[in-house]
Structure formats: structure tokens, C-alpha cells
Hints:
Helix content: 25-40%
CATH class of the largest domain: Alpha Beta
Distance between the termini: 35 Å
Number of helices: 8
Radius of gyration: 20 Å
Mean pLDDT: 91
CATH superfamily of the largest domain: Gcn5-related N-acetyltransferase (GNAT)
Largest sheet: 12 strands, mixed
Low-confidence stretches: none
CATH architecture of the largest domain: 3-Layer(aba) Sandwich
Strand order of the largest sheet: 1-2-3-4-5-12-6-11-10-9-8-7
Shape: elongated
CATH topology of the largest domain: Aminopeptidase
Amino acid sequence: xxxxxxxxxxTRLDAATADAVRRLAxxxxxxxxxxxxxxxxxxxxxxxxxxxxxxxxPAEDGAVAAYAQVIDGEAASAELxxxxxxxxxxxxxxxxxxxxxxxxxTRIWAHGDLPAAQATAAAAGMAAVRALHLMTLDLRTAxxxxxxxxxxxxxxxxxxxxxxxxxxxxLETNAAAFAxxxxxxxxxxxxxxxxxxxxxxxxxxxxLVVSATEPDAVAAYHWTKVTPAAGGxxxxxxxxxxxxxxxxxxxxxxxxxPVTLAGLHHLRERGVATAHLYVDDxxxxxxxxxxxxxxxxxxxxxxxxxx
Length: 307
């Protein structure tokens, strides 16, 4: 790859550039062993949202040498990735300075918190302010208790999500359950539709918990995600506890564990060998629940901010 030129700030990406960023992200993941860009960031490559800004460092041969994305707002965040062949040229520092210049309150993710990311953050005068754990569970050996909802909750039922019918009820529960979460709590219909359009989406993997007394409301949910294994092995699948939520009206009533177990049993039935999930380090109650079920921390992502 030939040396890069300058940092270009764009509000939209054309299809060719978006594809080049995806190739860049794959190259970096193959090299580092961890994805530099999250699912939401990759989905935003085709977005028209005003709060999303793309910072592109092009290479002379038409490829993308580095990329950063800023999602502006009350809890502004950013992610960046530099191609392995163009590292150690000050590009990450240039992108960091560009972000600081226009979005000084932005927090930047370092997925895997690799040494190079730590060094870039330190040089920029940033400090870690948030930790996100990737936890895993071997479903082949895990002793999962049966799903049992507490008595006196009005008869809880687990059923599959119905696209187009349950959208509004789920969005309301999700927003309420994650009112203080900087990413999950602000998902809207556009975000939901983008996920419905992904190859991995299957409504049968999206489990809702409803009460017999309020069948059209979502008391809780466990959205699982099942994708082909790396390398395209048709016999293998990866399973994720994509997101688990309980409406505040139902919190503190013993729903969290059975809702989690419902999804884990579902993943096991789907042939998943290892389940993984992401959880904030400061969500001590959730971390404790997952540890009791046998999950262990595999890697930790960190978010850095200027101090």
C-alpha cells in the first residue's frame, strides 16, 4: 500500500469508499485478532444520519489507509482503524487530533485495548473512562438450570419476536431498560430495520417475555445472534447474547436470570458451542449474574477521553 495523503472529513460515504473501509477493517482484524470497528460503526458506513461523520485517510492506490467515525451527540463516541501496512507513520495520532479539534468531548473506543492503542491515547493526553468486557461460555459443558420464572408474575411466556408487529413495544422497553446507556438506549426504528436487513437476523432468535395480563407489552427480552463460524465452516456457528433487557416496571422481580437462561438454552438448541456477550464493567449486577452462569472475561475493550 502506498503512503497516505490527508485526513478527509465527510458526512456521507460513496459505496466504493464504504467497501474499502470494510476491507480495511477485515485486514486489521486479521492482523490484530480483534475487530477495530463495532457492528454499529460498520452499519453506519451506509447511513445518512447527520450525527455521523467519517474521517478518511486515502492511500495513493485508491485504498483506504485509515478511517475514523464520530457519532456526535450528548454521549459522543468514535472508533478508528489504521491499516497494518501504514502504521507507525503518525496516522492514528493525526486522526485523534482531528477528532479532538472538532469533538473535544468525544470518547474513543480501543477494542481489545491493544498496546498501540494505549500508547496513542497516552500520547494524546487521554485516559481510560469506560471498560466493556467480552465474556464467553462453553455451552457444551455448561450446567444450565432450567428456565423457571418466579411465581406471582401473571404467567410469563417466551415467544419469538414478530417484525412489524412487536417493533414499537420492543423499542419502548429497550429505551426504558437502557435509559442511561449511551448506545443501546438510543436505538430507533431505523436501527432496528438495519438489523432486520442483516444476513444473520432470524426472528426466531429474538425472544420476548410477555405476561398473560399484558400480552402486547414486552416485559423483558433476550435477543440472541447466530452467525456462521469464521472461515465459512458450514457446520459451525457462533452465538451471541446480543442484548438482554428488562423493562423497569418488571425489574427487581427475578426476571433477569430466567430471561438470560431462555436465550442460552435457545443457543444450545441451535447448535452453538460457545456463547459470548458484551457487558460494561460497571454493570456489576449483570457481570455477577453472568459469572454465576459460568461466563468468563476473554478480552476487555476500553473507551478513552481527554482529561
